[in-house]
Amino acid sequence: MNQxxxxxxxxxxxxxxxxxxxxxxxxxxxxxxxxxxEYVRPLSDAxxxxxxxxxxxxxxxxxxxxxHPELFTRKGELKSQYQHAEYMIQRAERDKMFMKxxxxxxxxxxxxxxxxxxxxxxxxxxxxxxxxxxKCMKDFASVWNEEERRREHFITYWGYDIQGxxxxxIVRQNTENTLPFYISALTKEKPEPDMQLYWIPDNxxxxxxxxxxxxxxxxxxxxxxxxxPQRCEKCAWCRHxxxxxxxxxxxxxxxVYEVE
Length: 260
Hints:
With 260 residues, the chain is of the alpha+beta class. Helices cover 47% and strands 18% of the residues. It has a single domain (9-42, 95-259), classed as Lambda Exonuclease, Chain A. Strands 1-2-3-6-7 form a five-stranded mixed beta sheet, sandwiched between helices. A hairpin with a 4-residue loop joins strand 4 (143-145) and strand 5. The protein is globular and about 60 Å long.
């Protein structure tokens, strides 16, 4: 496996990754459709800005710019949001500690197994003493979790603890070292981005790994065609493939609102 074929259909079918695992958690049907190429997640400015910053730190920004002409205006200038992404990078590079954590081996690939399921990971900044992942986000505010009806830290809301648990375990299998997991975080806030280094404690990663071990075998069976994936009936894929069978009594939805 290498940088060129890491996201190939063959390797996405053979291996599970943290993003794929989290996609299955959200909607099994959509995750399987995405693996098969039946559903393509639309590229938003938010995703492109994050990929822009990622590409800089892995040393492939020039290639990224060529691959994404939508970053530029008709005059050939970077659109304002990507000019701000460049400023985010400049701001991060002024901080010695941020850059120390981002100075490890870039995009290092490891493979292994969790609960009998093959996994692959690609570490943004790998050090012999720690694992570092780069994240770009709107801000560091807590996020409203609609299902649990409460606000929670963005790290758990976006499943970065799940990602950290997978990374830590696969690195351990390859190096025999259980390394700490850190997030180098940058915000897209204007005029000044914020930044922070977050450590996810081992006990949090232990709990997250237990969740991965519990669910990964089921998700693998879905990929193998042994289990029919469940639909969330909320995401874009489920709306796109929705089939009406009968009218719905609207009072049943009102009862749900009252319970919440």
